[in-house]
Amino acid sequence: MKTLILDTDFIINSIKNHIDIETSIKPLFSYKLNISYLDKTIEELRNKPFENLALSLIKKFKKIRTNKDKTVDELILEIADKNKDTIVATQDKLLKEKLKKRRIVVITIRQQRYITF
To answer: Would the pLDDT of 26 be above 90?
Structure first.
């Protein structure tokens, strides 16, 4: 089973644009995904717009415990490098570029309406 990691910006933008993550992601993949987030994402969500809604939304997804001495982006890159079955959902342009160079599948929100590769 492949793992989809949700980045903080992706979570916030999906809420802001009224996008249901699970419903929007399912049609993109013919296989079952394990939707997850990093434990450090919770820290990044603090004092951000939609904090409470975001925290309640991600409770249904799997939490990946990490070494917290790095940034979320660094941790995502590290996990993706170790496991090539990882897919990352992010809006962060720099992170997308780094992931694509490593040939990691990236999904993003387009035109504030839908999720795509």
So the answer is: no
